[in-house]
Amino acid sequence: MSTDRHTLELLAPAKTADFGIEAINHGADAVYIGGPAFGARSSADNSVEDIARLVQHAHRYHAQIFVATNTILFDDELEPARKLIWQLFDAGVDALIVQDMGLLELDLPPIQLHASTQTDIRDASKARFLQDVGFSQIVLARELSLAEVRKIAAATTCQLEYFVHGALCVAFSGQCYISHAHTGRSANRGECSQACRLPYDLKDKDGNTVASNQHMLSMKDNNQSANLRALAAAGVSSFKIEGRYKDLSYVKNITAHYRSLLDDILAHPDADGPAWRRASSGRTTFFFTPQADKTFNRGYTDYFTNDRRHGIEAFESPKFVGEPIGRVKKIDTKGRKFFDVERVAPIHNADGLSWYDPKGELTGLRVNRSEPNGGGEGIDRIFPSEPLPPDLVPGTSLFRNHDHEFERALEKKSAERRIRVDARFATTTDGFALTLTDEDGVAATATLAAAFEPAQNAERALATLREHLGKFGNTIFTTGEIELDLPAAPFLPASQLNALRREAVEQLEAARLKAHARPPRAAAVEPPVPYPQDALSYLANVSNDQARAFYARHGVKLIDAAYEANEERDDVSLMITKHCLRYSFNLCPKEVKGIRPDPMQLVNGDETLTLKFDCKRCEMHVIGALRPHVARMRDTVVAHKVSFVPRSVSRN
After folding, report:
1. Residue 632: phi, psi to the nearest 5?
2. Distances (CA, A) of 290 to 83, 88, 302, 353, 401
3. How is residue 387 annotated by DSSP?
4. Residue 347 in contact with residue 390, Cβ under 8 Å?
5. Number of neighbours of residue 307 by Cβ within 10 angstroms
6. pTM flag (> 0.85)
7. Domains of the chain as residue ranges with CATH
8. For 373, left (φ over 0), alpha (ψ -120 to 50), or beta?
9. What is the per-residue pLDDT across 202-213, written as a single tens digit (0 to 9) for each?
């Protein structure tokens, strides 16, 4: 399919090949998935054989499969990574998602390269550099505004990918080291321990508590539903859904949600804008109504797309609170066996209900039985499947975080995707020919050797022809126009017509797979373009000699080792984020006169992290050090794996 920026691609996640198949069925133009190793989600690995099965299904629709090989690599991992990439190429994979620049120094197959979000693409110079070294698609930082996207689009011609839905990493991607510092599990190696979802106390420079027991680094989930048209106009061509850890109902529901929104944009382009096109074939029919609010989320935000604003935080809970469903009207005071809910929608048996207890903690229960109107009009009587907790009292606001009826609909076949096919049935010198031409112009012809025998009832014979030639049943095709190019109505048995159609369908399927053109590998600019900086700190995540050689070849003179391999144990920035707690608590020096950007602290148990504020860049730095046990463990790993000396251009 076309890959210019007028082509809009819906990119869905897949934990497994079967999830990926359902993402394709629910309208994804492309799917990203982890291979058996080196993906930045350590618990979402898949065999090459399973990926090949997913590729086969996707290519039927000219959809594409991208494999995430986006961890940083140690020297002894480069050769296994190279061999794996060749296996993925042989399996038909369309592109690799890459963080480690050392891979570009290896003997790779001619497979397209996409720059992972972990490469931290926040400005036009970095984006243009990645394009010039051979990346065809780049995943923009989640924090970018529409204006910043437009600047990058003006400086590049490669495809721009933007996260439109799902969990938000509070740190700039690839710039978070808290997990490694505290647990030895590196986010850049696919093992994030999610310290950002923990509760903290926030203290000022004098130790006074500003707020306590809140999830200070936890963001609401990303939802760009209202911004898709503006993002496309700004230059985004790939709309990415986060979620390689998410369950199947999430993949189905959220993919369907964005498929519907993008289809509406494609059907109603701006009068003075470009003629946008879809990136793959077919039309999806849903057997349910997509509803993003029904699927796990921490509340929604469009983050910084429309510039900085309040309300991006999920301080109360990192869990799924759910949709507002009503309030407690009455409690069974005798046996506490039921309670009545004044609800805004019917509550089903096996639904999950949640609420905040007096301590502000999210709690909940499962509904065993719901009796509509048990307590009056618009009121359901709820019999829980467990003892009624004492903190549930009249007036409590309730949420539904598990809609059992909705989830049951997603457990079944919930969508099908069909490609329009036009049929032409004509006579030949020795019989008949059926030509099927799909919506992409791919055609296949099957022939039938048979004598022409005029039908006694011409009208019935022609109706029979149309009926049997258009029976595409459980195939991926659906009937378009049927042209009968005949001198008269022939008589042909239904068995012959069905066999002819099946043969034509098989040939068309084979022709479609043959016609799928994998995107080419972009050539790097020669001579090598200079990197935007001539010195790199640990933030560049250089963990092997080949990555060092790459940056040296592009003019970098001073190259620190990655944090995971660095000897540094003192306090450093473990996280850099555009989320600012001073702004969240109305303590921003830019907004409140007389306030200084003094450091603050985050405290969780015996762990204290220092916050420093770069007001010029509107960034917050979370400062800390390696825990001693992690330093000892890391030293063992580094001695085994890393063969270069930090902070030297070449070994002495």
Report:
1. -65, -45
2. 40, 33, 19, 21, 16
3. P
4. no
5. 9
6. yes
7. 7-168+220-280 (3.20.20.70), 176-218+530-652 (no CATH), 319-411 (2.40.30.10), 420-514 (no CATH)
8. left
9. 999 999 999 999
